[in-house]
Amino acid sequence: MTEGLGEVAAPRVVLVTGVARYLGARVAAMLAGDERIGHVVGIDSADPSAEVAALLPDRVEVVRTDVRTAETAKIMINAGVEAVVHLAIASAADQNAGGRAAMKEQNVIGTMQLLAACQQAPDLRKIIVRSSTAAYGASFRDPAVFTETTEPREVPRGGFARDVLDIEGYVRGFHRRRPDVTATVLRFAPFIGEAANTSLTRYFRQSVVPTVFGRDPRLQFVHVDDAMEILHRAVTGNHPGTFNVAGPGTITLSQAVRRAGRIAVPVLEPGMSALAGLPVRFGSRDFSLDQLDLFVHGRVVDTTALRTEFGFEPRSTAVAFADFLRGHSGGAVLPREAVRAAELAILDQIRQARAGVGAGVRAADNFSGGRLAGLAGRRGVERDDDD
Amino acid sequence: MTTTSRGTRPSQERRGGGSWRHDTASRGRPDEPISGAGVAPDSPNAESEGVGAEAGNVTVGRPGDGPEDIWDARVAGALAFMRRRLTGAYEVDEFGFDPELADGVFHPVMHLLYKDWFRVEVSGAKHLPLDGPALVVGNHSGTIALDALMLTHAVYDEPTVRRHLRLLGADLVFRLPFLSELARKGGATLACAPDVERLLGLGELVGVFPEGFKGVGKHFRDRYKLQRFGRGGFVAAALRTGTPIVPVAIVGAEETYPMLGNIKPLARLLGIPYFPVTPTFPWLGPLGLVPLPSKWLIEFCEPIETAHLTDQADDPMVVFNLADQVRETIQQTLHELLARRPEAF
Q1: pTM score, whole prediction
Q2: Where are the alpha helices (DSSP H) in B62-118?
Q3: Where are the domains of chain B?
């Protein structure tokens, strides 16, 4: 029970939820690689895919269990779990795995059950919960930059945003019942990076990108590697509270589309809402009301608290996005080099054309010179009258 | 102190008009932003500072490739600007402000209205700080908020100041598609305490019109009568950050669209605060959107320091008194400016 603010002993046993997914697997592997942490247990209700399983080293004990059963509490007590990293939170509905209903079940009910299990774990000292900047909602009356204390103006219409608000509420309730457990809530901006694969990165990989007519939202991303570093520091250090985790700065959607060399196709907002409301996939892409709200209102958060508390500066949104583009440079319709080449070609054409007429212009110089002088003189007189 | 620009203007133009050669070959404007060259109004009379100094050698160098160089630089600048826009190679701040677009497109367009249509004259620019934060508080009028644009351009155009004014807009502005994005790219943000304090904390020059729609949407017979100043939120924000308040009086906007009536049912139907009837709108259709060419005067008044009141930002009496002081200053300056401008056009 050493609750000092400085160097705190790292937890000996860590439980990571959602290890069958990319982020969970990477975090579990990272924690297992830290000598200060003795044992990492990963749980998930599904088996990891071959791709994700390759990320998981043998040192991570993977248990396939539904978080909604009593088994979780048993694992936590038996293994003597000291820290929980809750990452089993889905940001988009997977149509192959039950859609929005299953997503809500996993996010909200899953968190409730996990917290109930945490309450019975005697050795627990720390809980780190993945949240999202979607918690700020979306409204025209929002400030341009959200700080951790900004309250959402109204309940957001997006499913993920509502889940996030519920989850944070449950964590606050848990903290009241177990004040001895340090609760760190990390509100992540959308993840991006060379290897990230989210609905937003899939969106930017299309060659023609639908946007909302008359809107150019400010976007913010966090690089996956920076998110991992923050999670690592949250596990090994002592950082109670709620923190925005995002790359400082912003790029607008139009800018992002242009930097990616894609073509934006503006769609009227009601049309987008209809698309988002349809249960079918949009092209082979998923598209939700959460995303639509982001594409209408944009979202920029303040990261001062993160930087002072964690002593870590995530790379900026622009740099994180550039890193994503490096991994996905193929498929650009308007690559930067082509635009540059076109610019030089046009400039060259104009120079040649002007060199051609240049001699003629000089010959006619005296004549046109006199005429223009007269015109300029008249203009000057009119101006004086106006004043 | 009153009209520096007015005093020098005609003589410069006469010089420019009389000796055309000097002016056309005015490559002697090294301070002109290249990025704006492609879109800037290339009127030979615009921005004639420095022409006199260059006059001597330009006449000699005329038959050479001097003028071709400037055109080449302009074409190259314009193409590079378009390429940067096309590939997204520009910066936007966290409020959505796009300085490159403002310098290259918005301000050159506003300059046309500012110089040739409204013939704006600015006085008291010395009261604006050259760096660091200040809250510029002005009177609002004219049915369409052209005064906000002209004030922004005045701050940008004053040779001694040359700063971007960050305007605060009503939430209606940010509700409307296109307008919201234009406003953000032009440096505006929502008029709310967190945004104001953040901008002031970053050392920005922030512009606010506390009358809001009460000011822009008032009847022509109420022209130059300041409306109520709301809750004084702008004063509280200035107090909390210890920022000086610079009152500014704007004369001329009232006559651009003299509002004679308001079709309330239509306004309610469209969800806007008022539906204006002016001598030309809606009678002349789109032509009615052309503002009347009134003569404008803008005067920045002496700053009101607030640094010593930082701990009293929550005291309503202090806030209301300060708001009243600002209001009185603007109203009085408006009367002085009106006396200086006998004719509206």
Answers
A1: 0.82
A2: 66-87, 99-101, 107-111
A3: 17-87, 99-256+291-340
